[in-house]
Design brief:
The structure is a single chain. The chain is α+β, with helices and mostly antiparallel strands and 611 residues long. It folds into five domains: 98 residues, no CATH class; 132 residues, no CATH class; 138 residues, Trefoil (Acidic Fibroblast Growth Factor, subunit A); 158 residues, no CATH class; 39 residues, no CATH class. Helices cover 21% and strands 31% of the residues. The strands form eight sheets. Strands 19, 21, 22, 23, 24, 26, 27, 28, 29, 30 and 31 form an eleven-stranded mixed β-sheet that branches. A six-stranded antiparallel β-sheet has the order 6-17-14-13-10-9. It has a five-stranded antiparallel β-sheet with strand order 4-3-2-1-5. The longest helix has 25 residues. The chain starts with 8 loop residues before the first helix and ends with a strand. The relative contact order is 0.07.
Amino acid sequence: MEHQNPFSYAEFLRIFEHDDWFLIDETAFYLDYAPDEEYYLGCLREYEEPYWAGYCDISEGGCFRTASALLNAKIFHGRSVKERWENVRFFQIGGLPVETWLELYEEDLPKVERESRIEELYGEFLLWNCGFHSSETYLSMLDTLLSEYPENALLLKLKKFSESRKVICRLFLHHWNYESVSAGRADSSSYAALGKYLFSALQKQYEATLAKRPFYAFLRRDIDSLTSALREKLSYASTAVNYPAEDIWYHITSQDTTAASSVNPYGECIYASGGNVSASVYREGKPEENNHKVRAAWRFVSLGKGTYAIQNAGSGWYLGTCAKEGETLKMSESPVAYKLELIGNRQWALRNLENGLRVANISKRRNISLKADSAQLNMPASWYVSRVTTNDLRDSLNFVEGSLSVLTLPYSQTALPQTVNGEEMKFYVVSGSKLDATGKTIAIDMTEYGETTVPAGYPLICIIGNEYKVTSYIPFHTFPETDGEVVTRGMTVNGLVGMLKTTTIQNDTCGYFSIRSVVPMTSKRIIQAQSGYLNATSVANLDNVPTDLTANVSGNGLTNSISEITGMRDETVDVFSVEGVRVRQGTKMSQALKHLAPGIYIIGNRKFVVK
């Protein structure tokens, strides 16, 4: 079969520059005047000089940084592919027969041409916006593109708002960040196309300025002005690279293809193993498997100067650091600064600013560590960041059936489960306490939680079913609010203390819930992460609130910080019962409790006992 060249040189260059879009590796051709000599071209992104040529004038083949450098290299009978273009005949592109390749990409070829020209249009807008070019060049380019693509939505909007530079800028950024990427574009090639256009235009500007005056008259301030302008253009351009946005949840998936198939980490998500601050970080599942799992969702919190803390939605904690290279990465209570490094093909490296190491896979294990891996495509330190696409995030937790437990979660919730495995699930808040004659708390009153949503860090008392089963742990789902708040510290609500990290407590004023009672913490007690405990000194009796459930305090009750009246200033005070009834008014402190019936009384914000 006679082979032909179906492309112009400009079209072929664009195809090779967009290896993120098209299959191009193992492209083969011959020259029509020497049909028996075959030449090969390709691109392997894992190498520093990814573009390569084989069977050329270089005996071992040649490697190049860019597609343009490859196609302009004089290595085919002393001339370049560009110079020999009229003689080039392809018989294979991207390892496929030419006819198959053209059929595969017949719908994509016009798209890449249009998208590449839109990138140039954006570059021209930046040059106009910053004073290098007039608006006429930009408007002329826009009209030319519109004549070729009269139904393109972006071009029509750009024409409609052509007098508003602010609107034009927003339209370009939205298109680049969302529309072109959703169509399969890679950030690196888009960035390169825009940068190439800007550099070319600025070089022409430089040369034109230089031609107008002798070199000795080209003052330093002129050079500084051009340099500053170039940095400004590139800052505009960098916003078009899809740096993760704040307050948006992402999956971070491995792009590592170096491991054996049995332990291949490719496509697996970084995952927080638990809710505690010391939880390990490892890989688990593909994005489609983790789409609803809150501990596979991360967001990037700006710390300034281009650095980010990487926060987990399920625990609220941050991606931590390692004392030394190779240790398993754990979560951190405080934000840890990471730098996002764009590798290419929408792959990123996450570099720890404290030690310069990068987040990487550990060979033959599911754990994640910090390693001195280079930032290269498809290596252990390369990661793909993709937006979590669902609004239905879930967290799976386990509680003992029939036992009171405290639940404190770092994220706000849109709903609470009503039934779990056919058992009713109820949620309560503390509404008051009962005291004995000595002032100790002997019972806790609760009322059902009546709201449909739960703020982040808000503690609730919950129970599943009515019958206590000592070995029965029931899993249930919570429903995090996708765009809601995430915190690292729990609230205290009327004596109920929410805990987001595991803590050991020993205090006879505090108690933990067990089955249907409250147990004083007279000895050391571990309070698990995302749980909580009761502090009797902070409980107040709420007015006009029903008591739906009461939990008795076991043992001798909870000490309630009863004050002694001795040693206090003898000032004028009012005395109230624990029910809030004023029993004395305007009496001296030294006489405030004399001849009152035994019980608990409140003076100011302090409790006193009359025995």
